Amino acid sequence: TSAELLAEFAAELGCEMAIGLGAVNGVVPHTRELPVYGYTVDDELAARYDIDQPTYEGPTGYMASLNAELEAYSIPCVSIRVEVPHYLPTTPSPKGVQALLAYIEEVLGIDTASEDLDAEVDDWIELVNEAVAMNDENAAYVNQLELQYDSEEEMQEAGEDLVIELESFLADKAEDEDSD
């Protein structure tokens, strides 16, 4: 298979790690930060880069097959996916590319110069804004997505604040019990 051939070729080249990049359609507005997720089946990489390990068991796609072949050659793999707005055609997304590159910079510590895409991302957002504004129904839909996205962000931040407060409370409680 092509996955076997790629893994064999990577091994012959002395590849030390493979990074798979991709995009999936998501329920995200083009006007907000695009979510990026990384995962690996390699315990060491998961710990080193604080990346999730997949728990899904079932039918998979090509990337999972390629990763399995790379693992068979002892080449650890990291897969990184960005969610792109599902309502846009599958054209190149500079914002998606920039989000992937920024994730690589943050998690793997590799300089990707993602900021070099700022102007292209701004142009892309402007173009999509113009297209969305041409139809009231589309504009209303994107507005609804923005409200949903912002609400989820607020709930996540509130949850994080609650965890911090709870940890502080428990630490104080433990100190009180120790001093008794």
Write the layout of secondary structure elements.
Blueprint: H1 2-13, E1 18-26, E2 36-39, H2 43-49, H3 62-72, E3 77-85, H4 94-108, H5 118-133, H6 136-179
Parallel strand pairs: 1-3
Antiparallel strand pairs: 2-3
Helix pairs in contact: 1-3
Characterize the overall form.
Answer: globular
Class computed from helices, strands and strand pairing: alpha+beta
Largest sheet: spatial strand order: 1-3-2
Helices, by number, come to 6
Total DSSP E strands:
3
Arithmetic mean of pLDDT: 86
* Strand content range: 5-15%
Summarize, please.
The protein has 180 residues and is α+β, with helices and mostly antiparallel strands. It has helices spanning 2-13, 43-49, 62-72, 94-108, 118-133, 136-179, and strands spanning 18-26, 36-39, 77-85. A 3-stranded mixed β-sheet has the order 1-3-2.
What this model shows, in words?
By secondary structure, the protein is an alpha+beta fold. 58% of the residues lie in helices and 12% in strands. It is built from six helices and three strands, in the order H-E-E-H-H-E-H-H-H. It has helices at 2-13, 43-49, 62-72, 94-108, 118-133, 136-179; strands at 18-26, 36-39, 77-85. The protein has a three-stranded mixed β-sheet with strand order 1-3-2. Helix 1 crosses helix 3 (62-72). The protein is globular, with a radius of gyration of 21 Å. The termini are far apart. The model has no long low-confidence stretch (mean pLDDT 86).
List keywords for this structure.
180 residues, alpha+beta, three-stranded mixed β-sheet, 12% strand, globular
